[in-house]
Amino acid sequence: MYFAEPHSPWQRPTNENGNGLIRRYVGKSTDLRTHSAHDLRRIEHRINTIPRHSLNWDTAADRYHAAVAITG
Question: Is 59 inside a domain boundary?
Answer without folding.
Answer: yes
